[in-house]
Amino acid sequence: MRNRLCFSRVLLIVGFCSTVGRASLAADTEPPKIFLDKSPRIVAYQLGRLDDERLLMVPRSTDDPKYIPVYEAIVARPAMAAGIRDEAFEALAKLRERSVAAELVATIGRLKVDDAEAKRLQTVLAKKLIAQPANELAKEIEGLRELADGDARESSVAMAALLAAGKSDLVNELSSAGSESMIARLRAIELLPSDAMKRRQRSMVENELKSANEDVQAAAIDALSKLPGPTSETFAALLRFADHTTLRTDACRGLLRLPKAVYDPATAETAARSLVTFAEKTDAADRTSVEFIDSMRAVDRLLSIVEPEMAKSLRRRLREVAVRVVKIGTVEEEMRYDVPYFAVEAGRPVQILLENHDLMPHNLVVTQPGALKSVAMAGLSAGPEGTNGLPYVPDSPNVVAASAMIAPDATTRITLTAPEQPGEYPYVCTFPQHWYRMYGVMVVVKDLDAWNQNPIEPANPLGSNRSFVQAWTMDDFADAFDSDLAGRSTMIGEKIFNEASCVGCHKVNDQGGVVGPDLTDVYTRWKSDHQAVLREILEPSHKIDSKYAMQTVLTVEGKTYSGIVIDENDDILTLVSNPEDKEPIVISQEDIELTKRSATSMMPKALMDQYTKEEILELMAYLKEAAEKKAAGNE
């Protein structure tokens, strides 16, 4: 099997819900026969042989302890839907007559964190543990003490839980055991559930900046840069390490996390000079390292607030030794880039470093001004073979530059010379259906230093004037349904359905796409439960519809395919990227190395964060009316 995943043929289905298991037409629908009366080792072996879908078919109940191994298997599966996992934890707590917090501590302690998926699961469970009531966490002191004696990640989780429980004295005791314990405590801070808790750790973090141990100092720099305010003091503290031989990169990465508004021009110039000198002294062979690149990105940020003539002088020196690098990441579950726009100087070389932190494949394609949508649609037509080995990239003069399609946790680079003509050049992910939300703008300017003195945010390339409103949660709507959505405008709701791009994937009243399920009767399916429908909108990964399962198949030749499995038997596996596809992908079972599925929905979880609470309720009223009309027509 090849070490590098080749996305020469990547197919994806985007839906309203994600997966609980493979939708296999030919699979045996009878529940697996598991002998729960055998020894724990034999039971675990039987359950371990089942894929996630078959595991969920195993009978289970909260009225008999023999089902405990089934629930334990469910909570330990990385790709299990959040709602299913939550129900399993509740069942375990009931069967063992103890708290969910106790079950979480035990599960985290049992996990074997040996790959990226297991690390993600550990993080999910850690957040769930730390969010438990403080009085419940306080009852688990012994279990948390034991967890703190585990590896570095487990120790950080335990200390964060103890801090959330108000046991700071115990954390002080645990973290005094040595440098590794102190590093675990510093890394625990970002796990804390509230800004207030994090701020209370500030004096301790600042004190550890003076540690004699440089590993502890590095962890303190990282922790300080992630603390909520006061960021001006943070800037000053980090800047002191900008010319430190071994802590320079840590300081630069910390500076990049701070808003540019807190940068001080006078001290920024001094640090920029130091970093430019460092770049000039760095061996050419080391100038492509991630550490060097991050340091140069920090210089670029510092130069953006330095007086223009001085910035030009320093930037000229920098150009002699390094190409300007812009790092762009993907945001997990939100189908967007973490950089909405950046500026480059016309005719100058630039490198874009794309890091995929999401659970699905993405690319980045820079287009000519005004060509985002046409390139994205042409990319869909180009298909998984694409152009010159780049999936979903069309052969078009409107494509300025394009990356490969990269797998989760992978990176790639695009090196290009910026166009000579100033303007706003959109960049977009051309994976099917992603262009609705996943885009940004490369602003090409004549004089980068002059632009930095008076930066102008580019226009939204799709014409939207929406901006972030709030990261909505279910609690924000606790009292929103007292009037049962009476008096709301379904016309406004329909407008929002279209504007939010829901119509691209879903039908309502026979209008819309067919990539996701028809939502005309979504209220009927959820028995008119407003909270259940709202959760599907705000937390699309909470419950999962197996009919819209996104599977990733890795072949023995190293090729990767993604899509809905529509058929499977002992000989072949068949999947499609879209119900409208004329030809599905058929893969021989002998050619399959492994099959994995996503733990999250293909619907972005932050889709409604640019809409007001009232607008979200209008959307729900629109869906409710659609279900009522359909029900009336069927009578």
TrEMBL record:
<keyword id="KW-0813">Transport</keyword>
<dbReference type="InterPro" id="IPR013427">
    <property type="entry name" value="Haem-bd_dom_put"/>
</dbReference>
<keyword id="KW-0732">Signal</keyword>
<dbReference type="InterPro" id="IPR028871">
    <property type="entry name" value="BlueCu_1_BS"/>
</dbReference>
<feature type="domain" description="Cytochrome c">
    <location>
        <begin position="488"/>
        <end position="627"/>
    </location>
</feature>
<keyword id="KW-0479">Metal-binding</keyword>
<keyword id="KW-0249">Electron transport</keyword>
<dbReference type="InterPro" id="IPR036909">
    <property type="entry name" value="Cyt_c-like_dom_sf"/>
</dbReference>
<keyword id="KW-0186">Copper</keyword>
<dbReference type="InterPro" id="IPR009056">
    <property type="entry name" value="Cyt_c-like_dom"/>
</dbReference>
<keyword id="KW-0408">Iron</keyword>
<keyword id="KW-0349">Heme</keyword>
<dbReference type="Pfam" id="PF00127">
    <property type="entry name" value="Copper-bind"/>
</dbReference>
<dbReference type="InterPro" id="IPR000923">
    <property type="entry name" value="BlueCu_1"/>
</dbReference>
<dbReference type="Pfam" id="PF00034">
    <property type="entry name" value="Cytochrom_C"/>
</dbReference>
<protein>
    <submittedName>
        <fullName>C-type cytochrome</fullName>
    </submittedName>
</protein>
<dbReference type="InterPro" id="IPR008972">
    <property type="entry name" value="Cupredoxin"/>
</dbReference>
<feature type="signal peptide">
    <location>
        <begin position="1"/>
        <end position="26"/>
    </location>
</feature>
